[in-house]
Amino acid sequence: TRRITANDIRARKGGEPIVALTSYHAHTARIIDPFVDFLLVGDSLGMVMHGLETTLPVTLEMMILQGRAVMRGASHCLVVVDLPFGSYEESPVKAFQTAARVLKETGCGAVKLEGGARMAETVRFLVDRGVPVMGHVGLTPQAVNTIGGFKVQGRDPGGAESILADAKAIEEAGAFAVVVEAVVEPLARQITEAIAVPTVGIGASPACDGQILVLEDMLGLSPWAPKFVKRFGNLAEQIEGSVKAYVSEVRDRTFPADDNVYKPKK
Ligand code: KIV
Ligand code: NA
């Protein structure tokens, strides 16, 4: 069976919900790949893997390295790789150079970039040159310093208007889907009804055409997660339990046991 493409995702508008997760890492990609529609190598890896407070310090090299790891683990899903802060905003040409490196060096099927109307020209430039682009509007974490924090977007009518205009601009520019992050429910519904490509929500209500979460947040590994995350697992507790068992078995010399020891040939 062939790998899911950006066009397949676009064709899911209004149908069965699209399901996506982030992935930064080969073994987790392999586990998730059969069940979801796309994997996002998100720049949230800066926070999750590196303990950074924002995504701003994430480099293109970090994204390419983890993008390659995920591609090795995933054979069914579309893999989308985030363009990191500073690698694409200044011009369409710069964005194309960055996106081309990502596609060539990872083998992924699409890139994602943040921003609405101001990025429309860039989205069109990339799509016209063979780069499928996923948009990202609402809370755009790379703009945390101008937004003034990680806050719900679109609560005021002016803000909602401009986010709706952003989503439309990105769609008109040729994006195959748009991530909508941390917006109030009526706005998520309005955007989803207004554009012809799927909306993939994160903290954006069930009105979207699909959902995405950060894997480590939904697994209960992250020490903290926003209100919109449901914890479907408790990995932090499971890791703690396993580590405590290992520590106590080493200390009381029950590990390594006979099964775990190499014996000379008889
Ligand atoms: O980097 C990321 O994980 C993302 C998703 C939250 C959409 O951009
Ligand atoms: Na991101």
UniProtKB/TrEMBL annotation:
<keyword id="KW-0460">Magnesium</keyword>
<dbReference type="GO" id="GO:0000287">
    <property type="term" value="F:magnesium ion binding"/>
</dbReference>
<dbReference type="GO" id="GO:0015940">
    <property type="term" value="P:pantothenate biosynthetic process"/>
</dbReference>
<dbReference type="InterPro" id="IPR040442">
    <property type="entry name" value="Pyrv_kinase-like_dom_sf"/>
</dbReference>
<dbReference type="GO" id="GO:0005737">
    <property type="term" value="C:cytoplasm"/>
</dbReference>
<feature type="active site" description="Proton acceptor">
    <location>
        <position position="181"/>
    </location>
</feature>
<feature type="binding site">
    <location>
        <position position="82"/>
    </location>
    <ligand>
        <name>Mg(2+)</name>
    </ligand>
</feature>
<dbReference type="GO" id="GO:0008168">
    <property type="term" value="F:methyltransferase activity"/>
</dbReference>
<comment type="pathway">
    <text>Cofactor biosynthesis; (R)-pantothenate biosynthesis; (R)-pantoate from 3-methyl-2-oxobutanoate: step 1/2.</text>
</comment>
<keyword id="KW-0489">Methyltransferase</keyword>
<feature type="binding site">
    <location>
        <position position="112"/>
    </location>
    <ligand>
        <name>3-methyl-2-oxobutanoate</name>
    </ligand>
</feature>
<keyword id="KW-0808">Transferase</keyword>
<protein>
    <recommendedName>
        <fullName>3-methyl-2-oxobutanoate hydroxymethyltransferase</fullName>
        <ecNumber>2.1.2.11</ecNumber>
    </recommendedName>
</protein>
<dbReference type="GO" id="GO:0032259">
    <property type="term" value="P:methylation"/>
</dbReference>
<comment type="similarity">
    <text>Belongs to the PanB family.</text>
</comment>
<feature type="binding site">
    <location>
        <begin position="43"/>
        <end position="44"/>
    </location>
    <ligand>
        <name>3-methyl-2-oxobutanoate</name>
    </ligand>
</feature>
<comment type="function">
    <text>Catalyzes the reversible reaction in which hydroxymethyl group from 5,10-methylenetetrahydrofolate is transferred onto alpha-ketoisovalerate to form ketopantoate.</text>
</comment>
<dbReference type="Pfam" id="PF02548">
    <property type="entry name" value="Pantoate_transf"/>
</dbReference>
<keyword id="KW-0963">Cytoplasm</keyword>
<dbReference type="InterPro" id="IPR015813">
    <property type="entry name" value="Pyrv/PenolPyrv_kinase-like_dom"/>
</dbReference>
<keyword id="KW-0479">Metal-binding</keyword>
<dbReference type="GO" id="GO:0003864">
    <property type="term" value="F:3-methyl-2-oxobutanoate hydroxymethyltransferase activity"/>
</dbReference>
<feature type="binding site">
    <location>
        <position position="114"/>
    </location>
    <ligand>
        <name>Mg(2+)</name>
    </ligand>
</feature>
<dbReference type="InterPro" id="IPR003700">
    <property type="entry name" value="Pantoate_hydroxy_MeTrfase"/>
</dbReference>
<comment type="subunit">
    <text>Homodecamer; pentamer of dimers.</text>
</comment>
<feature type="binding site">
    <location>
        <position position="43"/>
    </location>
    <ligand>
        <name>Mg(2+)</name>
    </ligand>
</feature>
<feature type="binding site">
    <location>
        <position position="82"/>
    </location>
    <ligand>
        <name>3-methyl-2-oxobutanoate</name>
    </ligand>
</feature>
<keyword id="KW-0566">Pantothenate biosynthesis</keyword>
